[in-house]
Each structure stands twice: as C-alpha cells, then as structure tokens.
Amino acid sequence: MKTLSSLALLLFSVFTVAQQQYTVKGKLIDKASGDPLEFATVSFISEDPNQSPQGGVTDLEGNYTFQIKEGTYQVRWEYITFKSVTRENVVIDSDTNFGLMQLEQDVAELEAAVVIAEKTTVDIRLDKKIYNIGKDLTVRGGSASDVLDNVPSVSVDVEGNVALRGNDNVTILIDGRPSALVGMNGAEALRQIPADAIERVEVITSPSARYDAEGTGGILNIILRKESLLGFNGNVQVETGIPERYGLSFNGNIRKGDWNVFTNTGMRYRTTPGNASSDTEYFSPTAQNRFVEERRDFDRLGRNFFTSLGVQYDITDNSNIIGNVVYRYGNDDDVTTNTIDRFDINRNLNEATRRIEREGENEDDIQFTIDYKNDIDEDGQKLVASLQYGMEIEEEIADITERDVILNELNDDEFQVQDSEEKNALLQVDYELPIGENINFEAGYRGNYRDITNSFFLKERDFLIPGNPFIEDVGLNNTFNYEELVNALYVQYGQKIDKFSFLAGLRFENTNVDIFQETTQITDEKDYSNLFPTLNLNYEIKGGESFSLGYNRRIRRPRGRFLNPFPSRSSESNIFQGNVDLDPTFTDNVELSYIKRWGDVTISSAVYYNHSEDNWERIQEDTGEVTDNGDPIIRRIPVNLSTNERIGLEVTLYYRPFKWWTINSDFNLFNEQTDGAFQNQDFSFNNTTYFARLNQKFVLPGKIDLQSRMNYRGASQNAQGDSNAILTVNLAASKDIWGDKASITASVSDLFNSRRRESTTRGQDIMVDGTAVPSFVQNSEFQWRQRQFIMTFVYRFNQKKDRREQRGDDNGGDLEFEG
C-alpha cells in the first residue's frame, strides 16, 4: 500500500509539473471610440473536455492578467453588443501578451431568421451610457431631436428643449467638442441634423476633468458617422411621409491604402403642422379684458440640406490626421394663424381678432475641423490635438397683420427682421501618459472662443398718421453682441489598486466676457476664474458587478438673449427680456451608481444629488402696460432667483429574455426643492416627478423587425405653475429585402397624437380690494408637431461583403494586435 501511495504521489507530481501555469495578459478597447471595454470576458477553453474553462474579465481600463495552465486552447474575447473574437489552437507554453485588441461593435447584417448577435440599442458602461443609432427603427427618417428623445436619462419636451435627469442645462457636444451646429438655437438646430448622420450618443452624467465644466446637468456627446470600411461602401436612404415630407441621403466612404474619404449627405422637405391654445383670466385693475381666449395654428414648411465630408490619412500605423467639414443649410416658410377672443367680466365679447404671421427663415452653418492623433508607444502614451472653426448665420423676416373680425378692419401691420451670427473657434490638446500597468496621468488645454451678434428690427404701420406709414419702433430695435473666451487647463490622475480604482482631476477655467449693446452704446465686461474638481471612485465586487462614486463641480454661463435687456416678443402681449446682470450658476453633483451584468441582463442604477447656487428662473410678471387691444403685457425675464436642490433615482435595464425579444428601459424619479424670492414674493416650490421609457424590439417570422417605444413624463410644477403628464407612443416595423441588401421601414411617431404640453401658469400676486390674488391665471396647451407617418427605404452596397472580408473568419471581429 505504501508503494502504491508513493507511485500515486509521483504521478500527481509529474502531472502538476506538466500543468505548469503561465501569465497571459492584454487589453480590449472599442475600435470606434478607443474607450476601454471593462468587464469583457476572456475565455480559455481547453481541447481536453474534462478540463474546465479558464479566464476571467477585464478591469475598468480594459486590461486583463490571468494564470492559465499550459496547454492548447480555443480563446474567446467577448463583450456585450460587440462582435466576439475567437482564435483556435492557441498554445500556452510560456508567458503570453496578446497586446491591444480592438473590438468592433456588432453591426453586421444577419441572414438567419432569428437574431443571434444583433447590436443592442443601449450599451451601459461605468462612466457613460452609449445609445447606438443603427438598429433603432423609430428614429429612421427623424432628426437629432428624435434621437435624443430615445436616449436613457434624457427627455425632450414638446418644444425640443433637452434635459438630462430633468435638468435643462445640458452641454451638447458634436464629436466631443462644442459646435456652432447647436449654437444659438439649440432646439431648432437639433431638428435639422438628420438622425442617419449620427452614429451614437454618449450620456455622461459624471464628467471627468477632461471635459468642459459647462453644463450643470451633464454632457451629451453626439458622434457623427465616419465610415472606414475598406473599398467603396455606403447606403442610400429615401423617405416619404404624412404630413407631406420627402428626403434623400447618402452615407458612405472610399478607403484605399492610407486614405479614407467619408461623407453623410442628405436633403429634406418637410411640413410640420402644430397648434396651441390658451385661456387667460386677468385680475389686474388695468385690464380692459377680463378673459382672453387664444388659438394658434402653425403651418410650417422646412427645406434642409446637410453634409459632413471628411478625409483621413494614416501617417503611420499609430498616427493619423482627419480633416472634416460639416455644412447645414435651412430654408423655412412658416405661417402662424392666431385667433383671439376678448371678453369682459360678464363674458360679453369685446373684440375678436385674427393675427397672421408669415415668416421666412434662412440659416447657414459651416464647421471646419482638423484632428491629429498619435498613439506614441505600445504602453498607451497618446497625444491628441484638435483645431475647429465654425460659423452660423440666421435671418428671419416676418410680416404680421391683424384684423378685427367683427369690424373687418386692419388693426396692426408689422414688419420684423431678426439677424443672428455666431463665430466659434476652438483649440484643444490632450496628452495621456500611463505609468506602469495601473497608473495613468492625463493633462490638456482647451481654448474656446465665441462671438454672437443678435439684431432685431421692427417697423409698424401707424394708423393715426395720414397715409398710414410704417414707423420704426425705437423701443424694440436693437443690436446686441456677446463675446466670450474661455481658457482651460486640466490634470487628472488615475490608479487601480486591486479591485479599487480612482480618477481624480482638477480643471481651471478663466472666462472673459464682453457685452456690447450697440443701440445704447452700453458695454459690460466680466472676468472670472474658477476651479472645478472631479473625483470618480470605482470598486469591482466581482466580474460584471461594481459600484462607483463620483463628484464634480459644474457651471452654467448666461449667454445671448438671456443677457440682452431689449425685449423681443412672440406676440404683442407676451414679451421676453434678458437680464444683463444675470450671473453664472454653479452646481455641485454627487452620484453613486451600481452596475451588474449577468447573462442577457444588464442593470445600471444611480442615486444622484445636485446643489445649485444662483439658479435661474424665468419669472412672468404683469408689466402694468396694455396693448392697443387692451391686453395686459406680460413679461418673462430670467433672474438669479434661487437655491436649487435635486435628488433622484435612476434605473436603466437591458434584457433579452429570448433571442427574438430585446428590452431597453429606463426610469428616473427626482425631487426638486427650490428656495427663492423676487420683488418680495416667495417663488419657492417643491416638485416631485418622474419619467419612464420602455423600448422593445421583436424579431417576427419572415425576418420582420418590430419596435415599440413608450415615453411617459409625469406631472410637474415650477415656481409659477404646473404641467400635466404626457404619454407618447411610437411604432416601427422593418423588413430586409433583395438578399438583405435593402430594407424598408414603416413608422408612426406619436401614435395617439398625445404629445402636447398642458399647463397652468399663475402671475405674481397683486392686491385687489385688500386681498392678494395672482395677476393672471393661464391654462394653455401646446403641440409642436402632430402625429406623423414615415416610410423609409435603405439600399446598402458592399458593406456586408467588406465587413466579412475584414473579419477574416466567421467568428472574428475587426481587430488589430499591437505589441
């Protein structure tokens, strides 16, 4: 027995020696963005069926280091929403470094009736959420505004204003930089950028010091398409719909050798009817009319041309330069019909008028960008430099007439011209230096210059002078210039210690602002410097599960119309007036988030807290003046009114219960407490609201894709009123035809025609017979765009074939090995 035991021990020792372990390591990154792929799976599957798989997951920087037993393996690199990579017959008989591997997101066309490896709509990561456009059927034929309305954590109201977790102060970047494309009129500009020009949107709620401190709510980074497949590739998209709309676009590239030329070009013709109404009761003693009922119908016609044209040259295997020009042209003709009935206190009709505004608008935007990138060495040392110049010119011309319906007389005849111009220049340099495997140092500079000029001209027919000549309104005509230069420096240091990692940064920004009111020759200058610390902590509990804690300080700078003291107006009785004394708002943000992946389920949750000082509020007040019709003139003016505290909970879910059913959902609940007073009146309020989104994708028999999207925005309130809840439902279906070379998609936006804002607004309190009452109470509805039906046809050429050739085999992704 002793001999048998000794023999067994000897055989075990020999087997142990034969199964010696070696160190394997490498790094995985996203090929498109260069971002590390954290919690990606690396598996070593032995040819011996009795040996269990080995391996593990990557860390927060995409690195992995494992001890693997000697042998021959099939090695798999896998990450959710990316193409998996497989290498056969890999022999591990020494320490092995697989180097830097670039995985490609899964956008290949599928031939099977059931989707096996389809790209998901939402990619959840620790530092951001990435919304991929490719497979979202509901935004085909839409705009950037439609895209953002489907992004987790983001809400877009009926007027196109974007908010992140309920905060409307959001910085919108194009390709990681401020852009004139979304400069002066962000909501309108987003409606003119086509959805098919966008590759993805990154949602960054806890930005590091690398990013601008602008935007107290966070950052939305819109990444435009830049195809880079070998050869000549592309697709053509044609669209039509009801209300009347037509569109034609091309997206593609030509890549040969070290050169790549890419473009996304399209033109669109669209009609966009909308409507609004309001019922207002005035309590001011100066009001000649007690009740005013107003109805507005919008008949809009928009023509738009958009092109992004770029050239990339690979200087070496590790460096390249990209030149890109983006041009957008818009030509709109809008007719707004405004019917107003005015009543006395006994509901007797005093006057009925019909006001028609015919407006033409031309807009030219152009942006030039040069990017240089150099991966200096295999250790990750990197230098990136960008130079950008952009310009936006906008002209609006409006003829406005108003007739007395009862007397059939012309009451008002106006001619308005508004001119706006913005110039934007940017220089940015970022340097990254890894120190060993677990330490990273980063530093950079950004200089951002903006020059914005707004001019408003109004002349009005004077019916009291013989001949009824047009007379200039010197009380409204003005030219206003805003010039801003922000110089910024930042440093940040990151380190990983076992399962814990942190990234600490500090950003310094100097802001110089010159304001020139040309009409009055009044100038003002502001110069201030601020420090913006950031800290992000991460702890990995186990593979696919981690906590992170982030802190950052942000700023909101007043610009343009918010500073212009001359009133502009959307109607005679409703005017907006800027406040030249408006100061920046500073916000401290804290966020605790948790992410877990298991199988086909990914859950990301966060608890966040924001504290803002000198927060802006738009106050509506009765000026005490009346129009020629006797309507009290209500003025809206922004003021540094309040301290604002916001605490919220957010949950985002990706779940694939079956191969034919994919669910993306997010829910956001927050409480907002605002404390502040204006002109001895308390405007404090407490508001709890939420919004939820459910996006579902089904693969039906016959290779038909069906998608539904439901958005629900809960009721809310502000300092002067409240708004009702809004439910919106969108549906879309798509079918691949012609051997998967083409697709046809049918969609309906706002299925129940329910996307309308219903709100109640109360004016400042006034004393009437010794009692405090609101100066007015207004119930209103607004629908910017009615329900629409869209049909799109997409034809692809060479894309599918070239993707397969680049993969090299059926299991691989488009990847590169370095080191």
Automatic annotation (TrEMBL):
InterPro entries: Beta-barrel_TonB_sf, CarboxyPept-like_regulatory, OMP_b-brl_3, Plug_dom, Plug_dom_sf
Keywords, sorted A to Z: Cell outer membrane, Membrane, Receptor, Signal
Start and end residues of each Outer membrane protein beta-barrel domain: 375-795
Cellular component GO terms held in the UniProt record: cell outer membrane
Subcellular location: Cell outer membrane
Recorded superkingdom: Bacteria
Any single Pfam family the record assigns to this protein: Plug
Signal peptide annotation: 1-18
Domain TonB-dependent receptor plug: 142-219
Main location: membrane
PANTHER family, sorted: PLUG DOMAIN-CONTAINING PROTEIN, TONB-DEPENDENT RECEPTOR-LIKE BETA-BARREL DOMAIN-CONTAINING PROTEIN
Protein name: TonB-dependent receptor
Organism the protein comes from: Nonlabens spongiae
Lineage of the organism: Bacteria, Pseudomonadati, Bacteroidota, Flavobacteriia, Flavobacteriales
